[in-house]
Amino acid sequence: MGNLLELRNVTKIFRYGLFGFRFKAVDNVSLALENKPLIFTIAGESGSGKTTLARIILGYHVPDSGEVLYKGKYIHKLQRKDIKWFRREVQAVFQDPYASFNPLKKVYSYLHETAVNIAGIDRREADAYIDEILKAVGLSLERVKGKYPNEFSGGELQRVAMARALLTKPALIVADEPVSMLDASLRINIVNMFNDFRERYGILFIYITHDLSTAYYISDRIAIMYRGVVVECGPVEKVLTEPLHPYTQTLIESLPIPDPKAREKWLKAIKLSGVIEKEEFIARGCKYASRCPYASSKCFEEPPPDVAVENRIVKCWLYSEQEKPLS
Amino acid sequence: MSGGFEINIRDLDAVYDVDIEKNVYVHAIDDVNLHIKRGEVLGIAGESGCGKSTLAKIVYGFVNPPLRVRKGSIIINAYDSEYDVISLSLEERRAKLWWRVISYIPQNAMNVLNPVMRVKDHFIELLRHRSPKADMEEVVKLIESTGLKKEVLNAYPHQLSGGMRQRIVMALALIFNPRVVIADEPTTAVDVVLQRGILQLLIEFQKKLNNTLIIITHDAGVHSMVADRVAVMYAGNIVEVSEINAVFERPLHPYTQGLINSLPRIGDKSTRVGLAGSPPDLRNPPAGCRFHPRCPFAMDICKREKPPFIEIEKDCFVACWLYTKG
Amino acid sequence: MISVVKRIMKIIKSDVKVYVGTLIFILLLIFALISFLAPSWHKAWYFLPRDQLPQLSSDPTYWLGTTTNGRSVFWSLARATLNSLIIGLVAATLAAHIGLILGILAGLRSGVIGAIIMMLADVFITIPPLPLHVVLVTIFKEYISLPLLGLIFVIPSSWAWPARQIRALVTSLREREFILTSLLSGNTTRRILLNEIFPYTFGWHLVNFLNTVLFAIGSEAGLAILGLSLMREDTLGMMIYWIIYFNPLYRGIWWWVIPPIVVLILIFVSLYLISTGLQDYFNLRFKR
Predict the structure, then answer these.
(1) Mean pLDDT over all residues of chain B?
(2) Which residues from B are below 8 Å from A214, CB to CB?
(3) Contacts across the A-C interface (CB distance below 8 Å)
(4) Which residues of chain C lie closer than 8 angstroms to A114, CB-CB?
(5) Deepest in the core among A214, B98, B273, C12, taking most CB within 10 A?
(6) Could you tell me which chain A residue has the CA closest to the CA of B191?
């Protein structure tokens, strides 16, 4: 069995305005996910390109170069009949539950449309089927039917979004910051639900977030992104407890831990960036070079290669002398 | 500068009017009592809608309809004077309190700068209130101590990154050396590394000037890194006030316990459980203790009567029938 | 069908403005339709005695008196109302829908096509309408029949403003996440337009339509006063033209001067009330 999802050298360029500033939101990203249920996290700050990458995987953006393959098919070159298949296989949940639904439409209409259009459920049986799925996320049809989005709380609405994604019994769910708009006490419940679904239905989750603690909690593998580039990728235990890339190290160090005794180290002054984000995007060499404590002149000149270290991939010149570079 | 400083909040009760004629309102602040000392970093924690931002706004004196203070008082003792925030008029607050005694860094601070004014003009406008000639040297020193180059003073806000703007707003808040700085969710919209930098700056200034810092955020990790004491709010009430180590090691109130237990930590893969249910609608809050529908220890009395806010140990308060003989 | 009618009734009753406006407009409409009952000679000049005062009789012919050229004010006015409303309707239907289609097109295709459409719209918004109308009417005068007059107002200015508005609405809606949710629910672009975007544009479209009706009627009246409208047909503008030509005001013949002005004002007021009332209604809906 081949890979479930493969990204090969995917690059996406955005520009502001007609003749404006161009930058690579996603720069030469390659990833491969095997066809077995796991939770794969793409982590990064705002501006790292993770949301753009999510939309490319969903087929919403077309990459300017590189390909995306799902079960061996090029998703941006799908024929009409295959598009429906693709929509059944790959679904998504987004960050803001209130933005994910049209405030002028009843929430049930989306559930109904998904069930009838993609899952192929007959209209008359749709209600029963939807009720079943809603129960799996802890809701029920009578609590949902006939209501508009603003009649739900954030947590409930996000569950409805989850239910909508599950209706087609997908193989892959892309969850873009699904819990960052929810309150802390509710997050863990939703995140536990992802784990549950992975075990019960064998779904592969791509969990996109900037919150590394929840990422550690549920995922198996993680890719860290910075300004459109994947800087480190590997098993979550290793990457987050023994980070190799300088950016990952800074990230882990900067995480506030719910343990007051660790604060002295955390409060030690760090160098804040004086560089505007735009300049980092168009940097010639490594995008992190201007903030990196280990940067050498080579880092500013040439973009670093992907280096395999143990069972991880790190994009950094520091490790290229020790191991054979992959690219 | 004289040393005495404290804030005393007594029996504060405030609502948001939804429909004045039908007497429908959101009961945002319910019987809040708090004493804030000089030189401490106080964290106010709680979920969205619990009232922490509202409390901050009222302490600052920023009370506009539909927000209405029904009863209670906020007394600020600073510079050998006593200020009763609620009874002062808007002009008096502006003249005596704001920027000088108490400073407020709002949520999404990076978006509050005037887009058609250069950065230095923001400072000049502020400094003119004190003296006709603005002393730019102080400003330059302050800007540079946040890690920015002094060239940013000539820039327009949209030319700078979010993090830079955040630091500029902080500098604006600190230019008059206020006794109290209130930072409302200072780091929610920023990334982790920047968050660390901003909090470090706030703490550095706090230590240097020995002022009081009130940090409002729902992020427990932030509190654990910077706060000395934490006041936990739920549905308009303060349910627990404890010293920071105590909050994480021996949380008293069931809500705090549930919150601390639900936080995942790196290096620990054990299963965590969150709280069931969701915060109540404050137009119709539950009778008795507002947390009782979600509380695993709810007793009969919790459904009928509100627990009193008692001091269990020195400076340690909790509002729960588990600790009070009812 | 019944539910649609019920909803319309609810909207009409929801706001005083809409209610009053609709009432006035329906009365005007009835008045306009009465013109179909006009006697066959009503267009003939000097058929009736000239400058007769209004008299109440069983025959509506003399209800509003007669004009200086021997016509019944009542029947002329009824016919004029009808014709002006037709002009407004034709112009508005064409303009508002051209604007809607071009606006949606420009909104969805933001590249070259969108830029071209918007540039054209900007050109036509800035060209002052009256001189343009005058030029166009002069060119097409030989070919003018009633509907064509309506078209002339469409081309220059009436399509551009709705196009701009709808396009702004569509470009902002396009980026919203629920469009993506709809896409993932298996909807085609056409379905998305209908289900997701239409509820937002509908309100604007209706209001634009009403405003364009007013604009067209007003433009025709303006042209007619200059003598550039259809001489042979009665429209409200033409009535005013004849009023200026024959100067009844100086002779105290008020029953010819006041009725068309009152009708014109009532048309404007009623449609304006409906338009603003609807705007309030749609705004409240979006506040949810």
Answers:
(1) 85
(2) 264
(3) 64
(4) 184-186
(5) A214
(6) A45
Asked if residue B66 has a cis previous peptide bond (ω within 30° of 0), the answer is: yes
Ranges of each domain in chain C: 15-34+72-287
pLDDT exceeds 90 at position A173: yes
Question: DSSP code of C52?
Answer: P
Q: How confident is the model at residue A323 (pLDDT cuts 50, 70, 90)?
A: very low
Interface test with C, best of A102, A157, A167 (most C CBs within 10 A): A102
Q: pLDDT over 70 for what percent of chain A?
A: 92
The C-alpha atoms of residue A175 and residue B257 are separated, in whole angstroms, by: 29
Q: Nearest CA to CA, how far is C157 from chain A (Å)?
A: 27
pLDDT-flagged residues of chain C (< 70): 1, 144-151, 153-155, 286-288
Segment 225-244 of chain A within 8 Å of chain B by CB: 240-241
Map out the domains of chain B as residue ranges. 6-101+178-318
Chain A residue with the nearest C-alpha to that of B146: A272
Arithmetic mean of pLDDT, A117-137: 85
Q: How far is C95 from chain A (nearest CA, A)?
A: 27
Q: Are strands A172-176 and A22-34 parallel, antiparallel or unpaired?
A: unpaired
Indicate the DSSP class of residue A167: T
Catalogue all structural domains in chain A, each as residue range(s) with its CATH number.
3-319 (3.40.50.300)
CATH architecture for the domain at B6-101+178-318 = 3-Layer(aba) Sandwich (3.40)
Q: Give me the DSSP letters along A210-244.
A: S-HHHHHHH-SEEEEEETTEEEEEEEHHHHHHS--
- B-chain residues near A259 (CB < 8 A): 224, 248, 265
* Mode of pairing for the β-strands spanning A90-93 and A73-74: unpaired
Residue A324: pLDDT band with limits 50, 70, 90: very low
| E strand segments, B244-290 | none
Q: Do B265 and A241 touch (CB under 8 A)?
A: no
Q: Check residue A279 and give its pLDDT.
A: 66
Q: Is the predicted pLDDT of residue A271 greater than 70, yes or no?
A: no
Q: Which residue do the tokens 């021996």 mark?
A: B250
Asked if the Cβ–Cβ distance from B262 to A266 is below 8 Å, we say no
Tell me the one-letter amino acid at B169. Answer: V
| Chain C and chain B touch, per 3+ beta carbon pairs within 8 A | no
Confidence band, pLDDT 50/70/90 cuts, at residue B231: very high
CATH value of C15-34+72-287 in 1.10.3720.10, 1.20.1070.10, 3.10.450.50, 3.30.460.20: 1.10.3720.10
**Residues B55-74 pLDDT 10s:** 998 988 888 888 888 888 88
CA dihedral A312, A316, A321, A322 (to 10 degrees): -30
Structure tokens at A247: 């950016």
Query: Chains contacting A with at least 3 CB pairs below 8 Å?
Result: B, C
Q: Which residue of A has its CA nearest to C285?
A: A104
Contact B192 A269 (CB under 8 A): no
| Measured distance CA(A160)–CA(C44) in Å, rounded | 71
A120-129, B17-26, C5-14: least confidently modelled range? C5-14
From start to end of A16-171, where are the E strands? 22-34, 39-44, 65-70, 73-74, 90-93
* Nearest by CB: B278 against A186, A192, A263: A186
pLDDT, tens digit, 9 for 90 and up, residues B267-309 = 777 888 888 777 888 888 888 889 988 888 888 888 888 888 8
